[in-house]
Amino acid sequence: MEFTHDAMTKLKELLREPEPEVLQGDDLPFSGYEITSNRDKVPCPSTNDTKGPRTIEEYEEQEAAELDSLAGPGGGAGDRKAPEYTMNYQQSVSAEDVFLQMGPKTPSSASCENLVVRIKLPGDKKENVELTVDTKSVTIQSPQYYLKLALPHDIDPDNSKANWDSVKESLVLTLKLDREFDFVNF
After folding, report:
1. Mean pLDDT, the chain, as a whole number?
2. Which residues contact 73 (CB under 8 A, 6 or more apart)?
3. Which has the closest alpha carbon to 150: 64, 89, 72, 79?
4. Which residue, among 162, 156, 151, 159, has the nearest Cα to 121 in the 3D structure?
5. What is the pTM of this model?
């Protein structure tokens, strides 16, 4: 390979640092639009707001009223309220897991097989509750309550169970988790 003057010039152009691609200041083309700001013209919120609570009790009452109006996630529908509920993970453990610590399970929720949802429905009966379960959500309807609950993980509706606790007037759902990497945890 010969090192001619033309070859060296072309090599120098290839090895030269590239020019910046960001245009700044005077390099920008004129668009015909003027950029302005109204930051100084916006009034500051006053600290003497008469609608705000003045005591802790007023604040708590206002917060409770807002929560009732929102009715929590899934919210009530129309004149029906959203019931109280809890979600807990459930893990099946054996003697190998507890005493011998030979199983692949850990105390984390990644090793849990089920999601247990307890929904309190005081004043309702089992016959009045309509339950709809799909892979991503649970919907409960009754004359007094309505709840559409998005689930934190996909579930297998065919292998899930629902039980009515008549003493506590609550619905207990045992939802089988269906996660992508469960074959690693179990």
Report:
1. 77
2. 82, 149, 150
3. 72
4. 162
5. 0.54
